[in-house]
Design a protein that fits this description.
With 329 residues, the protein is an alpha/beta fold. The protein is 29% helix and 26% strand. It has eleven helices and 15 strands. Strand 12, helix 8 and strand 13 (263-266) form a beta-alpha-beta unit. Bound molecules: NADP nicotinamide-adenine-dinucleotide phosphate.
């Protein structure tokens, strides 16, 4: 089979397509023939050595999220059969399992069966984005009618998922993007308002949009010095989630968090996926959204596996709106 590996840390060009023997599924594991891979910023950061965990050894493969067909079951696996159409969810460490390959051995616990009407593209695009947004907005913050959620870097796959979930819950999503280039796309995606932060004053705009109160929940993947403004824009007693570090800069503790009594909280989707009951509720939320039709992952572009370097370069260029996918086979 073909597998993507990197032998050194670095830019997209370190990714190589290599031949390898497909693995045999061990106890509790399943081998899946991959149809579509969903790319995430996490993998770009893992490749760079800037993720929340480092590759323990090189060469390393990578990848969290994919969809395909069950090919072989390991001992003790129940609830799945050869030929089942499945999604692979990001519930493991990339030092233990990876999915950038034609075949991948993963834990059975990472699989969810796909209904016939859900295509592999959707099956590979939906989980990281929607489970991440669900965990913060629904499971932890209990967002509801009348709440406002401020979503920085809203053109990311997680940001777009947060917009759809907020609308579904009756909350008001305010999106940010750096330039006006993605403004129309974000409005079309359901943002009640979009602030282009390089061109507009974020604090003035959000205070105007929220009658001076700020947002009940702020869901931020950027961090860095901008956290001071976000704290000023979090409603008194509200929650400011930090779930990424796109800025790459140190993040000060914002003084406004004290005066406004806000909860400043780090967040990672594994809080949800590692907890069986919360995970099951999140999976059901996403499956119900797919069935009811309100949950639709936005796909920006699809590349074939042999163009994986280009696919990662596209991700790094930040011109995308939504998910970047890779088709296999
Ligand atoms: N904690 C978790 O469990 C979890 C789970 C999933 C993802 N994440 C994190 O969430 C973030 C988004 O992930 P993703 O895969 O959905 O991202 P993505 O699709 O790669 O989107 C990134 C978007 O963020 C904006 N951006 C990039 N660099 C920025 C910067 N320095 N300052 C402000 N905005 C910037 C850009 O939008 P504009 O060009 O429109 O500004 C870009 O299109 C990443 O940091 C990722 O690591 C965390």
């Amino acid at each position: 089979m073909r597998v993507v590996r990197f032998h050194e840390l670095g830019g997209p060009e370190v990714l190589r397509l290599e031949e390898a023997e497909p693995g045999l599924p061990g106890s509790g594991e399943v081998r899946v023939r991959i149809a579509v891979i969903g790319l995430n910023r996490a993998e770009a950061n893992f490749r760079l050595g800037r993720y929340i965990e480092q590759a323990k050894e090189l060469p390393s493969s990578l990848g969290y999220e994919a969809a395909g067909v069950v090919e072989e079951l390991g001992d003790g696996v129940t609830g799945f059969a050869v030929g089942d159409r499945v999604s692979i969810l990001p519930t493991f460490s990339m030092n233990d399992y990876t999915v950038y390959a034609e075949q991948a051995v993963v834990p059975a616990a990472a699989l969810v069966k796909l209904d016939e009407e859900v295509d592999f593209e959707t099956g590979a695009a939906v989980w990281m984005a929607y489970l991440t947004a669900y965990g913060a907005l629904v499971d932890i913050a209990g967002l509801g009618k009348g709440d406002t959620v401020l979503i920085p870097a809203a053109s990311s796959s997680v940001g777009l998922a947060a917009i759809q979930i907020a609308n579904q819950l009756g909350a008001v999503p305010i999106a940010t993007t750096r330039t006006a280039a993605k403004k129309a796309a974000l409005e079309q995606a359901g943002a009640a308002a979009v602030v282009a932060t390089d061109e507009q004053d974020l604090v003035t705009e959000v205070l105007r949009l929220t009658d001076g109160k700020g947002a009940t929940v702020v869901f931020d993947p950027v961090a860095g010095p901008g956290i001071n403004e976000l704290a000023l824009l979090t409603a008194r007693g509200g929650t400011l989630f930090v779930y990424g570090s796109l800025s790459g800069q140190p993040t000060p503790f914002p003084r406004a968090a004290v005066g406004r009594g806000i909860a400043l909280r780090g967040y990672v989707v594994f809080e949800i996926t590692a907890h069986p009951v919360r995970h099951a509720k999140g999976v059901e939320f996403v499956l119900a959204g797919l069935r009811d039709g309100w949950l639709k992952p936005a796909v920006d572009r699809t590349f074939p596996l042999e163009r994986i370097v280009e696919a990662h370069a596209h991700l790094d260029a930040n011109r995308h709106v939504g998910k970047v996918l890779v088709t296999v086979g």
